[in-house]
Amino acid sequence: MKLHHYILAAITTGTILTSCHKEADVMVSKPVITPSKPITSDTLSGAIQGTLLAGKTYYFATDITINDGDTLFMQSGVKLIALGDGSSQLKSPQITVNGSLISLGTKEAPNYITVSEELRTTDNAFKGIWGGIQCTPAKDKQGGDLILKWTHLEFAGGPVAIGNDVYKAGDPRYMIYFANVDKNFILEDCWIRGSKDDAIRTDGGRISILRNTFEMCGEKGGEALNMKSGTVGDVAYNVAIGAATNAFKVSNSGDKTVQANVYIYNNTMINCGFRQTKEGRGGGINFEAFAKGKAFNNLFINCRVSMRVVGGAGTGADLANLTYGNNLFYGNSYTLWNQFNATDGVSVFTATDIHGDVKQNNPVFYAFDVDQFDYTTLGGTVKAMPTSWKQQPLPLLQQGTSNFRVKPTSLAVGKGNTQFAPMNITTVKTAAAADVMRPGKDIGAYQQDGSGNQH
C-alpha cells in the first residue's frame, strides 16, 4: 500500500522527525526525535546544548546557559540535579534559557529537574535550593521555546545577588520565568512543587498549561501561575493545592503591547490563599489590570477567596471581554462562603454556577475529606492561617495519596460548558506540540471518561 512520507521541522539541531500516513485507514505514527549531540558527561556547567540521554542523571553546581539559537533536549527518564543550599545566588544555580529547553518525559518515565534525593522533603519546600529556569532572551534576540512534559520541577527560588529588570537584589527567583512574547511555553502533565515565591511567572508568551499539579507554591506570598501582559493562551485541567496567594492570576500589568488574554477552564483549586500575609487577598482565580479571558468549569474548594475580578479604572479587568460561569464553589465556613466572589471585586454568580450555603455542594472526591480542617477557627474575617505552614495539616498543601476525581454522584458531573473552543495558540508542530483539550462536560480537572488530569 502506498505510503506518503512527510518531513517535519526539526526542534533540535540536526534532528529530523518523520511520520507516515496510510491512505486507507488514516494512521499517523508519532514523530520520533533523533538525539542531537548526545551529552555523556554527568556534570554540566557553562553554555550547553545537545541531548541529555534517556535514563541518565546529570548534575549542575553552577549556572548553566542555553545560548540563543541553541537547544537543550531532555529525553525521557532524565534526572537533572541542582547542587546547592539556597543561601545565596552562588549557592542556588539556575538554568538560563536564551535559546530553547525541551523536556519530553513520559508517564512511564518522567523527567526530574530537582535537588538531591535527601533534600526532597516538605521541610525544604520553601528554601529555594536552586535558582529555577529563567527564560529571558539575550539583548536584541527573540529567545526560544520552553517545552516541559511529564516533568517534575521542585524546590526552586534561591535569591538573586544583584537587582535586574525582573528581580530586586535579594528577591527569591521564580521556579520558571518566561518572557518571550512570540515564543511558546508549553507545560503539560508536570508536577510543580515547592517554590519560594511565584512558581511560574510569564511576562509574555504563547502558553499551553495543561493537566499539571501545583503543590506548595509560595512561602508567604506568590501564585502557582502568575500571568502578565503579553501572555496569551490556555490554562486547563490543572490541580492547584495549597498555593500561598492565588492559584491563577491574570494581569495586564507590564510593558508588552499584546494584551493578557487567558482561558482558564476545568481546573481544581483546593485550600489556596492562606499563606498570603496581606488581608483579603489570595485564593483561586484573579483577573485584574485590564486582563481579559474566560473562567469556566472550575472547582473552588475551601479557597480563602475563590473568584476575584477587580473592577475600576486603571486597576480593573477588561470586563467587556471577560466571561465566566459553570463553576462550583465549596466552603466549610462562613469566612470562605462570604468570599466565593471577592468582596473587594466585581464578579458575581451566574445562572450556571453551583453555589450554596456553608458545607453545601460537596464535590464528593474519591479520596479527600474537604472538611478535615475546620476553617471556622480563622474567625470572621479573611486572613491567613494563624499557624505556620509546618503546623498546617500536610493534606492542605499537597496531593499525597488524595484522589481529586469526583464520584459519578457529584454535582460537578455534566455541568461544564463545552460551547467554546480553546485558543490553542502555540505554534509548535512537532512531537513537542501542545496537546490541547477542549472544555470538558464535567466541572474540574478530572473527567468521568478518564480524560483530563492524569495524576
N-C termini distance:
40 Å
Oligomer: single chain
In percent terms, what proportion of residues is strand?
25-35%
Q: What Rg is obtained from the alpha carbons, in whole angstroms?
A: 21 Å
Strand order of the largest sheet: 3-5-8-11-14-17-20-23-26-29-32
Question: Shape, please?
Answer: globular
Largest sheet, in brief, is: 11 strands, parallel
Average pLDDT figure = 89
Low-confidence stretches: 1-29, 380-389
Helical run tally: 1
How many strands? 35
Approximate helicity band: under 10%
User: Which structural class is indicated by helix and strand composition?
Assistant: mainly beta
List the helices and strands and how they pair.
Elements: E1 3-8, E2 17-22, E3 38-39, E4 46-47, E5 50-52, E6 57-60, E7 64-66, E8 71-74, E9 79-82, E10 95-97, E11 100-104, E12 111-115, E13 133-135, E14 146-149, E15 151-156, E16 176-178, E17 184-188, E18 191-195, E19 200-202, E20 205-210, E21 213-217, E22 225-227, E23 231-236, E24 239-241, E25 248-251, E26 261-265, E27 268-270, E28 285-288, E29 292-296, E30 299-301, E31 307-309, E32 322-325, E33 328-330, H1 334-337, E34 365-367, E35 403-406
Parallel strand pairs: 3-5, 4-7, 5-8, 6-9, 7-10, 8-11, 9-12, 10-13, 11-14, 12-15, 13-16, 14-17, 15-18, 16-19, 17-20, 18-21, 19-22, 20-23, 21-24, 22-25, 23-26, 24-27, 25-28, 26-29, 27-30, 28-31, 29-32, 30-33
Antiparallel strand pairs: 1-2, 34-35
